[in-house]
Structures are given as C-alpha cells and as structure tokens.
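job 3f2a | input accepted
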Amino acid sequence: MKSKIIYEDDNILVTDKPAGIDVLSLIKLLSKKHPNLKNVGKAPRYGIVHRLDKDTSGILLVAKNNKSLIFFQNQFKQRRVEKRYTALIIGILKYNRGEIRTLIGRNPKNRKKQKVFLKGEPGSKEKREAISEYKVIERFSAQGGPAKGGKDYTLVEVKTKTGRKHQIRCHFSYLGYPLAGDKKYKLKNQPCPEGLNRQFLHASYMKIKLPDGKDKEFISELPEDLKKVMEKLKV
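job 3f2a | predicted structure (235 res):
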C-alpha cells in the first residue's frame, strides 16, 4: 500500500496516509526509502509527529530529524496547529455551525474506547478537555425532511482545537450523530451508506509553522473510496 508524499523538505515529510494502514506500519514503509527516519525519535514511532487512526485517511506529518520533531510536536502541544477533517455523520444536523466542548478520557467499561465526561460527573476528575468546531458542508435527506429510516446524512468539516484520541468519533457519537461506517462508536441499528467500508473521516487540511518561521498549508482531497460514497448519496 503506497502513501503519497504531499510535501518534503530537509525537516519534514508530509504524507497522504491511506485508510487501512496504521501509522507504525506506515513509518516502516517510509523508512525503506528514507532510512534516516529510524534515527529520529524513539522506536517504533520514530519521526511521527502526531497520530491518525488506522481507518482515517489524510495528512500525516513525519519529522526527518530530532530537532524538527521537537519543534513540530511543541506546536501541537501549544494548540498552534490548525487541523480540519471531513466527516460524514448519520442524521441531519440542525445547525450550520457548532462547537462541542467536553472532557474526554478512556471508557472504564471498554479500555479500547474513549468516553465523553462532563465536569463534575463521577469519573471526570483529571479527564482532558476536548474541543471540536464543525460547520455543515452539505445535507443528504431522504424525502427532504428530518431523519427517516436512518437514510439521512450530513457532511461536515470539523476543526479540532485539541488532539484527543478518537476525539471526533467520540464527540459526534455522544451527540447522537455517529460517523458513518464507524464500528467502534456506532449506535444500535446504525445504517451505513452503500460502498462504505470504514469510518468516513479524512484529515483534509493542516496549517503549521515550519522551522524557517513561515506558515505552510497542506491540503488533501477526499480519496476515491469516499468520493464514490458521496456520488451515490447525491444520486
């Protein structure tokens, strides 16, 4: 499985990660062409600056030296990186824009999942703040009305102000609008668009400062599998 390189300089590789490959496997593939990556950071993550879920596609940053790894990771920690995702959720969102602000932490009943906590509720102590802003791109409504028979979907752009594990997936499931195709955070009897074999989530945009002080923007178009799903919804 190949990963397209969006941008490269002496400090960073920006790759367009395909769905179905985890970041550790991806770094192994990249290190075959760029063996010096194994000198960056610690095994097995090496130069990986941030994370993407296995079945999430899109922009992933890989540092090419230790100095730049620290430089880029600090920007993520300080919330200075602008990240946008494209997601298809189940149901019709009422408002064109919104913010989801909660605490997120490991689900005590399922250690492989995250859970939304509200301040003051049992188990919320020391959980970390998670902020997601969204805007509606397009609505796909059966018979043009509110959700009927689970055939309605909303395409959204999500800007994450924080970088919690499974943040977008967990947030929208908490609202009652899980991501289409998401098996981990799905609701009971959740429908799935024809041809969708993974969660509909794509890291489509990133803006970050390079070591030379200049801001750089990266864009990734929807991959073919998600484009085909969209085409069928529009028909």
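job 3f2a | DSSP finds four helices and ten strands in the chain.
job 3f2a | closed
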